[in-house]
Write a structure and sequence with these properties.
Elements (H helix, E strand, L loop, with lengths): L1 E7 L6 E7 L2 E5 L1 E3 L12 H8 L4 E4 H6 L3 H7 L2 H5 L5 E4 L2 H5 L5 E3 L4 E4 L6 E4 L1 H11 L3 E3 L11 H23 L10 E3 L1 E2 L5 H12 L6 E3 L8 H12 L8 E3 L5 H9 L4 E3 L2 H7 L2 E4 L2 E4 L19 H5 L2 H9 L3 H28 L2 H12 L4
Parallel strand pairs: 4-15, 5-6, 6-10, 10-11, 12-13, 13-14, 14-15
Antiparallel strand pairs: 1-2, 2-3, 7-8, 8-9, 16-17
Helix pairs in contact: 1-14, 6-7, 7-8, 8-9, 10-14, 10-15, 11-14, 13-14, 14-15
Length: 376
Amino acid sequence: MKFELIHKGKGTKARAGKITTDHGEIETPIFMPVGTIGSVKGLHLKDLTDDVKAQIILGNTYHLYLRPGLDTLEKAGGLHKFNGWNGPILTDSGGFQVFSLGDIRKITEEGAEFSSHIDGSKHLFTPESVMDTQRTIGADIIMAFDECTPGDSDYGYAKKSLALTQRWLERCIKRFDETEPKYGYSQTLFPIVQGCVYKDLRVKAAEHVASFERDGYAIGGLSVGESEEDMYSMVEVVNDVLPENKPRYLMGVGTPVNILENIDRGVDMFDCVMPTRNGRNGMLFTWNGIMNMRNQKWANDFSPLDPSGTSYVDHSYTKAYVRHLYKSKEMLGAQIGSIHNLTFYLSLVREARKQILDGTFPEWKERMVKQLSRRL
């Protein structure tokens, strides 16, 4: 994997760059649709490529390990061949999912023992096994195995957790470096910066991951219960330490406003389930603000769903019709909402990139933050 820093904005830490993988190029800043089990929920590949214009999608190690399982994925030739997506793929290590299991998981120095949410069967993820699993899945970018601490963790727990994550990272890197890709194309490993909302821990974590000189770095453990102010503050702290010539990936964030604010702070890559999850529930993000499609106000509004939108669904369906679909619990409503929101998110980061290249990002961002926050 290669990263080219093309332009740095004026009056901002926002950057425009380009990531090159064996499965294609990614223009940054970028939003990555989440395909937890190998599919972006409700979307065909044609939707993702032609309408959403996704450049990279995510898979999740925990879920893919359980279903369809590593044997099936290896026989298929990896996730790309299994799901038919020909572009780059990134896999989350599954750490967040394992640690969110609460009472049905146990953390030890060796790794994380957990019970499957599907059938209760017992499993163990170690740094080594997670590297092997992601080799088998075959993602272009794979994540280190870490412990994701809740945003309200006390300092003592956060410090202890970070130390464990750092020891696990060293094992991840050792295993990754002594193994080879399985399907004839290269893979790269991103370490993850943890440290909760404590500046000294974040600095220590960022310095530690940077010392390994990998192709890119992830910022984890944010948007997990802490305030937005703390999130932005920690991103600033971490990006002051991470090298400028490598991509920075903020995991699991967030709203359109969160994305713009963190681009402003030097983040290059984002993912979040919000556009599809909220889209399934009738919340649509637009250039003019947020629409709740279940509201009565749309019942007799026969104008296009979003005249400013770039998706075919924005111009093919009316607000009244889409509201009817949601109220009737018709699956097409959830599909339309998901396509609309993902298309909007990708158009948002494309426009942010254009504004960075034009030198107008700070002023544009200030206008957009107000506009995108409105409830319509």
